[in-house]
Amino acid sequence: MPTVLEQRDATGVPLARDEAAGEPLRVLFVTPYYKPYLGGIERAIEQVARQLSARGHEVGVLTTSFAFPRRHMSGLPARDTVDGGVRMYRIPGWPHRAPPCFSVPLVWFDPGAIGRVLTEFRPDVIHWVGDGWFWAHGWTWRYGRNHAGLVFTPSFHRLRPAYRWLQPINVLLARAADRVTALSSLERRALRRTYLVPASRLEEIGWGVDDPLPVDAPPRGWSPDVLSVLCVGRLGTHKGQGWLLDRVLAVRSRLSRPLRLVLVGRDEDGAVALRERVRREGLDDLVLLTGEVDDVELARWYAHADLFALFSAYEAYGLVYLEAMSYGLPVLTHDVGAVRETVRQGGVVVPRFDADAAERTLLALLTDEAARRKLGAEARAYAGGLSWSATATRFVETYRRACLGKTPWSGAAAPAGRGGSRPASAGRAVGG
Predict the structure, then answer these.
(1) What confidence score (pLDDT) does residue 411 get?
(2) What would the CATH number be for the domain defined by 4-208+387-403?
């Protein structure tokens, strides 16, 4: 494994460079959603891309003009540069209103536009992140399979009967990819079983976490006299805010201090129902819905809340738990998906949707400050050992393995940028 030397970007955030890592790579992420929308998968792409750019690799993102799950964002440029050099390519799709049968935009996209992006960017690696945008998966495979290593990082969910049609498609994608990466050992087993991924091409690479941002003030709505239970996630049925509210209501009367449930996140067809319930039941003093907040305000909540609680229906990894833990915030959650793997320390994982266990644990943690402090210290130490730098290093190693045997692009000008033109064989080195 290459030696990692710490560097810092313009904002002082630690970055890393691989020493003697071979020629720079051109990496194109393919994902249906990206900025200005930024969910968990998109935040992961952002952080890995940032690390890759800091190491001298060229990074692009091929995406759409949709926000999760089906909302079209008008007026966005077709070409953009973000994060100090990452090139963003938005492919227009029609119609702008995607059908409601699935969360990603099952609309028509111009295959020629996808081909032109690949010809312009000339990726050494095409990294499919998420398993929903089959149109782009298919056409980037069609145009780039001979020239670029194909890496597939699906976000695996158990296939409900209505979604069983996804299985054969993802089997084909897994077979087409040169390397497939899983976020956890649970997902690794699921990909082997459900998508028939050959063990020889399957690797486990989890996400990382940033260093905590400096916090200079409390968040809006916070009070030192009120216990704060923080929940961060899209407002909808999947993230379980209503179920959590039921648990909070069950224990509130048994606390000696006032309590507030703080729900942070953008609307995913759930905000109206939550606000109506708060109004109908007179819970304005108990529930604070902040909507989506910026990173600074989110950091303030992580730093000032007393407990983080999230009871999603499923989590393929649960990056938000690590973010909360990096601020020393203890976690309460339940055993779904890969949560038990992610929350190894610094939190309590109760049985799946066990209301009694969740309420007992919630009450115990809210009434025992010493226990919260101990868990918080464990959480901070544990999250501090999981970095985006280490994650990016492992992806670079995977990318180089995926590139073996590929034919360099020809007949197209290299995109303008840090690297400029390069020899035809560049980016194929195996080292580092």
Answers:
(1) 59
(2) 3.40.50.2000
- All structural domains of the chain with their residue ranges: 4-208+387-403, 227-384
Q: Where are the beta strands (DSSP E) in 233-344?
A: 259-264, 287-291, 307-309, 331-334
DSSP state letter for 387: B
CB 68 within 8 A of CB 103: yes
Mean pLDDT per 10-residue interval, the chain, length 432 residues: 38 40 90 91 93 96 92 94 95 88 84 96 96 92 97 81 83 96 92 92 92 94 97 93 98 97 93 96 97 95 98 91 97 95 96 98 98 97 92 96 93 41 38 35
Q: Coil, helix or strand for 191?
A: helix
Domain 227-384 matching CATH 3.40.50.12280: the answer reads no
CA dist 60 and 80 (Å) reads 10
Q: What is the pTM of this model?
A: 0.79
Tokens standing for residue 57: 């690799």
Nearest to 270 by CA among 306, 250, 244: 244
In order of 37, 221, 364, the CA distances from 234 in angstroms are 12, 20, 27
CB 9 within 8 A of CB 210: no
Q: How far apart are CA 152 and CA 377, in angstroms?
A: 35
pLDDT of residue 17: 39
What's the residue count for the chain? 432
